[in-house]
Amino acid sequence: MPNDSRPRVLLVEDSPSNALVYRSYLEQDYEVEVVHTGHDALQSLSATSFNALVTDVRLPDMSGLDILDRMQKEQPALPVVVITGHGSVDMVVDAMQRGASDFISKPFDKARLCVTLANILKEQKLKAVVEEYEKTFVREQFHKMIGASLPMQNVYRIIESASKSRASVFITGESGTGKELCSEALHAESNRSDKPFVAINCAAIPRELIESEIFGHVKGAFTGASAAREGAALRASGGTLFLDEIGEMPLDLQSKLLRLIQSGTFQPVGSSKELKVDVRFICATNRDPLLEVQEGRFREDLYYRLHVIPIHMPALRERGNDIMLIAHSLLLQYAKDEHKAFESFSPDVEQFFMQHSWPGNVRELSNVIRNVVVLHDGKIVEMSMLPDLRAASAGLPRQPGSEIPGVSKELPPSQQQPSGPKTGDNTRSELKAIIPLWLEEKRIIESAIEKCGGNVPKAAAFLEISPSTIYRKKQQWEKMDSLRASV
Question: What are the Sigma-54 factor interaction domain coordinates in residue numbering (predicted)?
Fold first, then answer.
């Protein structure tokens, strides 16, 4: 008695004898329907639901690849196995590119066909389970954060678990990964969501003012203090204080922050009176905090006070399809803001976005899309609209002929030895041509990145440094460029 729970397979084979043999291979485990022409196959596929399609390439009225193309449009989830007695590498590649699940060359035995079908159907079941899981448990957005990737799902779960606690949270991640959005989500999920959320960027405040920004000051505490001012700690009382780029905080101020975390008390600048506050601390850095401790730039006792619940924000290049998920959201948002008609990206742009390393992470992606929306019009973003991402990341023009260290033996001009003694005007001219070490280092690293097609990890490998070193130096260069521009 046939088992109705068996998977249904449509077998398309123009040779009756071959069809009989293949059917005998499968009928023990599958409910098999056999047809001999492409026309009959398309009729059966439209009338009946099948779990898999096995088709010969050469049929009397059409090619099996034509049936494959039709199924990719009408039933893309249907697994298709292509068989032929005239297989070639080109045909295999063509079939797989068109969406075939597998390709079998004649002659083949029972084991080859049965194992192929069993693996395909097993994979199909696993995909169904994953899709069901994603529909039920995977979130594409959590507060202001967008992302359905596994790393982001982990971030969401940690936020939900840690939000109700008073324990300090230490967020790490490269610049532009959304550390502040993570801190805002922690506050929004907490029992303090109706109380203030105060954010301080320790890197954006001058060293001499940061203590006043956090702890406040009394009138006359220092030159220019014409009135008393509440600090961030007092304003955040009952709520959350977010200290971004905490690695930039001076060591002497770190000791005062440690006291605030331990006792909940502090003294405003210029005051002898202690104030008590109830604050939940969240901090963030784009540096390696343990390395900062080891090198003496961050207090070890403060690190362990703050590093109770660590959250790592993944780099955009590690988040797979989140790149396009975020890109579409930003495109629609900016198109609305700028009153433009943009709706989507061309396939070439999507492929480029997925392959680009995004050293600036979500912030870089956001800047690129806003640039396109502001400067162009249309419904679809084309490759011609994109800014040159490599040029945009370069601070200075590159010198032609420079080579990647480790790839070419030729030294940059500034490192070549002079051919003979120089005096007078020639010496003064060459002295003027000497540039700061950080600029020369910047030129070499950016030249390496350019020659590696914008791939930072690849360039780092050639330069024999870590990618994180390049990203950290990029931030330092931005600060140095700003200082030079202000002089």
Answer: 145-374
Q: Is pTM beyond 0.70 here?
A: no
Amino acid at 145: M
Q: Given pLDDT bands bounded at 50, 70 and 90, which one contains residue 194? A: very high
Q: Which two tokens stand for residue 107?
A: 């002659």
> Residue 465: pLDDT above 90?
no
CA diameter of the chain: 105
Per the CB < 8 A criterion, the answer to whether 180 and 242 are in contact is: yes
Instruction: List strands edge to edge, sheet with 169-172.
Output: 197-201, 240-244, 280-285, 169-172, 309-312
Beta-bridge mates of residue 52: 9
* Stretch 226-245: mean pLDDT: 94
Indicate if the pLDDT at residue 85 is higher than 60.
yes
Cα separation of 103 and 105, whole Å? 7
Q: Which helix (H) or strand (E) holds 35?
A: strand 31-35
Q: Which amino acid is at 149?
A: S
Helices 64-74 and 89-97 meet at what angle, rounded to 10?
20
Q: How many angstroms separate the CA atoms of 80 and 103, rounded?
A: 9
At 28 the three-state DSSP class reads: coil
